[in-house]
Design goal:
This protein is an alpha+beta fold and 339 residues long. The chain is built from 13 helices and 13 strands. Bound molecules: flavin-adenine dinucleotide. The site of flavin-adenine dinucleotide has 32 residues, from strand 2, helix 3, helix 8 and strand 8.
């Protein structure tokens, strides 16, 4: 581990000013950042320990006042400060009552110990966990190299990797909580060093690998996430989240699904929002499954048809063909849970 300096940010403006004075935009686009924000620090210190990041300066934004609040209003919806921990989210009664799939996703992420430290801002901004991307021995596409080691037809270890949108990088996004956030049409509030605020939908926050290999989200060097907000749930909204893992705890998703929909009295699905995690390099909204369920009765036959529609575009790699039936079964189960 290299030596670095530590800066304890007192406010958002203070944190952004520190970045201004030490880092250039180009440096930040690459994995070896000179200055880095640290919130919970789980991902940041993994990077440092793995030798992938040799920071000159770490700016601790974890203790900035005001970013640790959860506010729910039945008309305005939910606002979560970026420094709220996953443990705080997991135990929040209003989230459990009004945004069940988010409650379920948070409770199935990582471990109780990690949830005590991890923040929501850090969770959605964390980088992927592809073992080649995380290895200093493998200069893959995302690190400016000329190949994807996971894709290799003979010795690529790609069992955890993407089955959708996997034409370039085949990693999957590490945030399973984002699967539920996107299904609830959450927005990310970002502030830059000029003090300008912008609000982007989760769908626009993530950057697909086919668009830009260097980025997994739109965050720029001089920007901080201050809040994640979710609209108030429409009347009769029901939701469900299911995550498939190899081990019950301490494990990343092999495939997870969030379904949010308005369900009318006769068990009909209206305005379905269906998102798949660990299927593609970023959380993937399955428009195919959504369309298949629109104005349909929630029953086994229609849920099966929707899950098959979602997987029509899947292109498995050499070792992850199992993900297709895994997603088919999980999408079906999640849809049936909202009936
Ligand atoms: C073994 C293990 C299993 C895990 N399993 C899961 C899982 O199943 N599901 C899941 O969703 N997650 C999982 N995680 C992720 C974990 O829970 C953390 O959420 C994640 O590693 C980062 O959160 P953090 O607050 O520590 O972020 P940090 O490490 O502090 O930051 C991560 C990144 O976000 C940036 N950042 C942080 N806050 C902000 C902000 N406010 N504005 C702008 N940039 C910011 C940092 O600069 C850095 O680039 C797992 C982690 C481990 C180690």
């Amino acid at each position: 581990m290299n030596k670095f300096s530590w800066y304890e940010a007192k406010s958002i403006e203070d944190a952004l000013q520190q970045v201004n004075s030490t880092v250039s935009e180009e440096l930040y686009q690459h994995t070896n950042k000179a200055t880095v924000f640290k919130s919970g620090g789980i991902d940041v210190f993994d990077w440092v320990k793995e030798g992938l990041l040799q920071p000159q300066k770490i700016i601790n934004i974890r203790n900035i006042p005001g970013l640790d609040k959860i506010n729910f209003d039945s008309k305005k919806g939910l606002r979560i400060g970026s420094n709220v921990t996953l443990a705080e989210l997991a135990s929040n009664a209003e989230i459990k009552e009004n945004y069940l799939a988010l409650h379920q996703a948070v409770n199935h992420a990582a471990t109780p110990q990690l949830r005590n430290i991890s923040t929501l801002g850090g969770n959605i901004a964390q980088r992927n966990r592809c073992w080649y991307f995380r290895s200093t021995d493998h200069d893959c596409f995302r690190k400016g190299g000329d190949r994807c080691f996971a894709r290799h037809s003979e010795n690529g270890e790609n069992e955890n990797h993407a089955i959708i949108d996997n034409g370039s990088c085949v990693s999957v996004h590490a945030s399973s909580i984002s699967t539920a956030l996107m299904a609830f049409n959450a927005n990310v509030v970002i502030i830059n060093s000029e003090g300008e605020k912008k609000t982007v939908s989760m769908d626009d926050f993530f950057v697909t690998a086919s668009k830009d290999l260097a980025m997994e989200n739109i965050l720029q060097a001089k920007e901080i996430i201050t809040e994640i907000s979710i609209p108030a749930p429409a009347k009769n909204t029901k939701s469900a989240y299911i995550k498939q893992v190899a081990r019950e705890s301490y494990d990343w998703s092999l495939g997870d699904v969030a379904v949010v929909a308005e369900v009318s009295g006769n068990n009909t699905c209206r305005s379905a929002s269906i998102v798949l995690g660990a299927a593609a390099p970023v959380p993937y909204r399955s428009k195919e499954a959504q369309q298949a369920m629109e104005d349909k009765t929630i029953n086994s036959e229609n849920a099966t048809a929707a899950s098959k529609a979602a997987m029509k575009i899947a292109r498995p790699l050499t070792k992850n063909g199992y993900k297709v039936p895994l997603f088919e079964a999980t999408i079906k189960q999640a849809i049936l849970e909202i009936s």
